[in-house]
Specification:
- This protein is mainly alpha-helical.
- The chain has helices at residues 10-22, 28-44, 55-69, 74-85, 98-106, 124-137, 145-168, 180-200, 210-227, 232-270, and strands spanning 88-90, 93-95.
- A two-stranded antiparallel ribbon has the order 1-2.
- The radius of gyration is 21 Å and the shape is globular.
- It starts with 9 loop residues before the first helix and ends with a helix.
């Protein structure tokens, strides 16, 4: 049986993901059983007993457990990308693209009986937040250039579409960005942008410049400032990401300048 870099069977990852998904099941009994199972999984890595907790807390702890056990897992990286974006990595691309998802999300169905979503219990925004954190904390060894390029295309296409529509349409209380599927997609796109900015601080595998990502986020925020055409929660999240990214860049530059200053000081001392 294939093993991960930490010596765990690769099948163990799928087993944990199955328990994780069960924590979001519509059936309360399945959620409770999954919560108990999650506690046993977490207990196996600790020297202490782990009490069963509510499913929402258990899912967060289980996602953190995945990072610890599979920090360099390419499979977990791919799974995380899929769960964050709602797309699958196929032939180097995340499919459907964010633009395709946006078109589908805005489509008004005229069917007499709409198809009900498979799981009404899952909070898709919360899930996007959880998986964005997983992707940011995985080792750069789990990240391939294919992953980075695919997410870059997905994000830039999505941000471009949001900006295009924001510049053209008014987002009233029940406007375009307030539709549940559109709102969720927007949050996914912005969170995925944060992931890319984080990856850029770790590795050169991300080819899109951080300045380009920050510019797109800034244009989305500007659309709200200028015309109020963007959902407030999108703007708040985008502004938070922009601030953190810029502060991170300042810190990096300060570190470089400090290192240069120390080198000059040492050289003068030897001179």
């Amino acid at each position: 049986m294939p093993l991960t870099s930490h010596g765990y069977p690769a099948l163990y990852l799928q087993a944990i993901l199955l328990v994780y998904d069960s924590l979001n099941d519509d059936d309360s009994e399945i959620r409770e059983l999954a919560s108990c199972t999650a506690s046993r999984i977490l207990e196996a890595r600790s020297a202490q007993s782990v009490q069963s907790t509510v499913p929402l807390v258990a899912s967060r702890k289980l996602s953190q457990h995945l990072i610890v056990v599979f920090p360099t897992s390419v499979a977990l990286m791919g799974e995380g990308l899929s769960r964050l974006t709602g797309s699958r990595l196929l032939n180097g691309c995340l499919s459907p693209s964010a633009i395709q998802q946006f078109s589908e999300a805005r489509h008004e169905t005229t069917a007499l009986f709409a198809i009900e979503k498979q799981n009404l219990f899952v909070d898709e925004v919360r899930e996007a937040v959880i998986w964005s954190r997983v992707l940011k904390r995985l080792s750069k060894r789990a990240l391939s250039a294919e992953h980075a390029d695919a997410l870059s295309r997905w994000v830039t296409g999505g941000l471009g579409k949001l900006i295009e529509v924001a510049d053209a349409e008014v987002d009233e209380p029940l406007g375009w960005a307030s539709k549940p599927d559109v709102f969720i997609l927007g949050m996914r796109i912005i969170l995925a942008t944060d992931v890319l900015l984080c990856w850029r601080t770790k590795t050169r595998k991300v080819h899109i410049p951080g300045s380009s990502l920050r510019l797109l986020l800034g244009r989305l925020v500007a659309a709200e400032t200028e015309s109020g055409h963007v959902h407030n929660m999108w703007v708040e999240l985008a502004e938070e990401i922009l601030v953190n990214s810029i502060l991170g860049r300042i810190g990096t530059i300060q570190g470089i300048l400090h290192g240069v200053a120390n080198t000059i000081h040492v050289d003068k001392g030897h001179g």
